[in-house]
Write a structure and sequence with these properties.
It is a single chain. With 234 residues, the protein is of the alpha+beta class. Helix content is 46%, strand content 15%. It has two domains: 18-90, Winged helix-like DNA-binding domain superfamily/Winged helix DNA-binding domain (Arc Repressor Mutant, subunit A); 96-231, Trafficking protein particle complex subunit 3 (Muramoyl-pentapeptide Carboxypeptidase, domain 2, 2-Layer Sandwich), CATH 3.30.1380. A hairpin with a 7-residue loop joins β5 and β6.
Length: 234
Amino acid sequence: MAGIPRARRAAAPPPEPTGAARERVVSALLGAPGPLPIDDIAAGAGMPSTTVRFHLNRLVEEGFVAAARAGAAGRGRPRMLYAATDKAFSAGPQNDRLLADVLIHHLVRESDDPAGAAERAGRGWAEEVLEAGAVAPGDGADDPARLVGLLDDWGFSPVMADGPGAEDGDRRTIELCRCPFAHGVEQQPDAVCPVHRGIAAGVLERLGGAWRVVDLVPHSPPGRCSLTCCRAGR
């Protein structure tokens, strides 16, 4: 820009993102055997004490760090000591994929019928979620559309398609355009795909049971999974 001279020496590296700096402060406290003064936190985080003090003030306000004065040990004002709180312990990076892998492999190893167990799990989860959300049954006419709305909320990006028999209103095919469990499907498709079917079945049951799941066909058409449901009794 005009009026701003170019630097004649290599520019200093940009300052560290605030989030990363805060994480270093919290990490230093989480790894400590007890409350620490600012100078010790700065040494553990590899940051200037003034920077640490700035972040500590914010972290205390937000409940990630607790502050207390040390007991008097002579003249002068007692030092402030800082410790990470339970909120900080729970606020680190999460690894849901690892948890999913552990549970899927346990299911496959311990169950004589992984597919059936997975479908029951999906059904039970959906029914419980809808019950907690006080989703009321309707007259059944719009249950497939309500199912589409819920599947959309859960990340399946569903679209309604015309399936065989759709002309009489007794059959619907829903194409799932995304898979929120794609990693699990790659690892154990026979134990994960049935979860989709169970979720849909649980939703329809909770909505009153006027519709039921007929079939779930993965990758049909390619890049989508087709979920077919029909009116109960058909």
